[in-house]
From TrEMBL:
Belongs to the aldehyde dehydrogenase family. SUPFAM superfamilies: ALDH-like (SSF53720). The active site is at 252. Residues 15-478 form the Aldehyde dehydrogenase domain. Its EC number is 1.2.1.3. GO terms for molecular function: aldehyde dehydrogenase (NAD+) activity. InterPro entries: Ald_DH/histidinol_DH (IPR016161), Ald_DH_C (IPR016163), Ald_DH_CS_GLU (IPR029510), Ald_DH_N (IPR016162), Aldehyde_DH_dom (IPR015590). Keywords: Oxidoreductase. The keyword Zinc-finger does not apply. Transmembrane segments: none annotated. It catalyses: an aldehyde + NAD(+) + H2O = a carboxylate + NADH + 2 H(+). It is an enzyme of class 1 (oxidoreductase). This is aldehyde dehydrogenase (NAD(+)).
Length: 531
């Protein structure tokens, strides 16, 4: 297939061929056709060139720009992304198979993220700490960090790009973004829009796989790196940062999110929301609720309704060609992800009881059936590891304490769902759940103004909201000592002249005082000089 899209890398507002001469290949997961075998992969010299461009923009045209001008550029960029959302989405859908409706929503959210952070660009204030008994006056300035890098996973390149680049730019930093090698084309196509809105070097996009990512994470001039992907790669990123320049790191590493459905829940709602979270982006969403814990009295009813919800998607022909506008569920991202999910299906069949799905769907493309296992052994890999596909496990519980214990029995801590009609119970249980986000009577979906991120081995750092901006700012504290200030600005010579005049004045005062005293004493001793 001829290239009808950009495959080079984007540095200093120009598309350039990678000096590394390396290229990689992308096949359509929907039907196996070749999308491109000429996607350029950035090597060491290319990353150095991107860092140089970003450094110059940071020290000049972008970093020194008036914040209100930065905001205007970002607002304009947001509008351009919004206008072209579907065209950009098409490129990611071609590469990684997610439904075009889902990926279009991704670019609209990315546009909104730029709008949101543009609004904050001129509202970055510091604080003043007044003199107290423990110290002098201090001003705390919040400053940009420098050249920042972002590395994205493949599930929604658009949102991951905006989460990392928009707050970085609003804070006055410049950015280098590496989309996943499985879905680089949409973000790469932003080049002309970037050029229309920003000075050269402000945003640079470099393609490539792990080797390119490692170059970014190890670079001595990059001051901050934000990563979304697997826990295993997250550990490496942290290691590269530690071994290079101790750059700041933030990690979003997916999860194994629990969903607790209590006996007083609206079971229809719980089933509908669970189906939605399982099928959205074909289950390739980090916050997907993949471990369901349900009260034993409503488990059978829930599974029945869940099956109905999956069947309804099938009946309206919403699983299939990801480029069709009516499609809601496409194939998995690539052969490796497909093989990984199928291997989990086999594990589930051995370690649990298959109740829905359990196999590939059709013979063309990398489609799998939505799948549910119940009564899976607690230590089974399918109960512990992130599958990243439309696969869930269902386990029953009897008491609230038991449900909390089961939900927290994981190394991950990204998000959780609670289904109950009791707000008191929802808030009580929320306090006990070890995650960065919790949805009550819904599945968790990040929003612009709220921080999103994990605890435990789901990572650290937050994206979205003011917290997301703070990750791209560092404080500088300026101490001020109070000193006596002369009323007017005077030169040293002026001061010396003043000192001399002061001396003369004092001398004449002292002399007149002395003379006066002498006269007084003369008078008192009958005109005799006594001293
Ligand atoms: O992730 P990787 P993959 C999970 C999910 C999935 C698994 C693998 O469980 O099955 O991760 O997905 C770059 N130094 N999530 O293979 O390998 C890589 O090029 C620097 C959860 O995509 O971690 C890509 O850009 N960078 C998740 C990015 O890291 C490296 C979403 C992610 O790749 C690198 C996606 C290295 N050594 C997958 N090796 C979520 N949290 O949403 C790879 N990369």
């Amino acid at each position: 297939m001829a290239s009808t899209f950009e495959t080079r890398i984007f540095i200093n507002n120009e598309y350039v061929e990678a000096k590394s001469k390396d290229v990689f290949t992308i096949h359509s997961p929907a039907d196996g056709t070749l999308i491109s075998d000429q996607v350029h992969s950035a090597g060491e010299q290319d990353i150095d060139a991107a860092v140089d461009a970003a450094q110059k923009a940071f020290k000049g045209s972008w970093g020194r720009q008036d914040p209100i001008e930065r905001a205007k550029a970002m607002f304009k960029f947001a509008d351009l992304i919004r206008e072209k959302a579907q065209d950009l989405a098409r490129l990611d859908t071609l590469a990684m198979g997610s439904a075009i409706s889902t990926q279009t929503m991704g670019y609209r959210i990315a546009a909104d993220l730029f709008t949101y952070y543009a609004g904050l660009a001129d509202k970055i204030h510091g604080e003043a700490i007044y003199p107290t008994s423990t110290g002098p006056y201090k001003i705390v300035q919040r400053e940009p960090i420098g050249v920042c890098a972002g590395i994205g996973a493949w599930n929604v390149s658009s949102i991951l790009f905006a989460w990392k680049v928009a707050p970085a730019l609003a804070a006055g930093n410049t950015s280098i973004f590496k989309p996943s090698e499985k879905a680089p084309l949409g973000v790469l196509a932003l080049g002309p829009m970037i050029k229309e809105c920003f000075p050269p070097g402000t945003i640079n996009i470099v393609n490539g796989a792990g080797k390119t990512g490692a170059l970014l994470a190890s670079h001595m001039q990059i001051r901050q790196i934000a990563f979304t992907g697997s826990t295993a790669t997250g550990r490496k990123i942290q290691e590269y940062a530690a071994k290079s320049n101790l750059k700041r790191v933030s990690l979003e590493l997916g999860g194994k999110s629990p969903s607790i459905i209590f006996e007083d829940a609206d079971v229809d709602l719980a089933a509908a929301k669970t189906a939605e979270s399982t099928l959205m982006n074909t289950g390739q969403i980090c916050a997907m609720a993949s471990r369901v814990y349900i009260h034993e009295t409503i488990a059978d009813d829930f599974i029945l309704r869940l099956k109905k919800a999956f069947d309804a998607v099938d009946q309206r022909n919403a699983i299939g060609d990801p480029l069709a506008e009516t499609t809601e569920v496409g194939p998995l991202a690539d052969q490796a992800q497909f093989d990984r999910v199928l291997s989990f299906l086999e594990i589930g069949k051995t370690d649990g009881e298959l109740v829905i799905g359990g196999a590939r769907r059709g013979q063309t493309g990398l489609f799998v059936q939505p799948t549910v296992f119940k009564n899976v052994a607690r230590d089974s890999r399918i109960a512990k590891e992130e599958v990243f596909g439309p696969v869930i496990t269902v386990q029953v519980f009897q008491t609230e304490e038991e449900a909390i214990k089961l939900a927290n029995d994981t190394v991950y801590g990204l998000s959780a769902c609670l289904y109950t009609k009791s707000i008191a119970r929802a808030l009580r249980v929320s306090r006990e759940i070890e995650t960065g986000s919790i949805a009550i009577n819904d599945w968790y979906f990040p929003s612009l103004g709220a921080p999103f991120g994990g605890v435990k081995q789901s990572g650290y750092g937050r994206e979205g909201g003011m917290e997301g901006l703070n990750d791209y700012l560092q404080t500088k504290t300026i101490q001020i000592k109070e000193v006596a200030v002369l009323p007017n600005k005077r030169s040293r010579a002026d001061c010396q002249r003043n000192q001399h005049q002061y001396y003369l004045v004092m001398k004449s005062i002292l002399r007149s005082t002395f003379d006066g005293n002498v006269r007084k004493r003369r008078a008192s001793v009958g005109g005799q000089l006594v001293s």
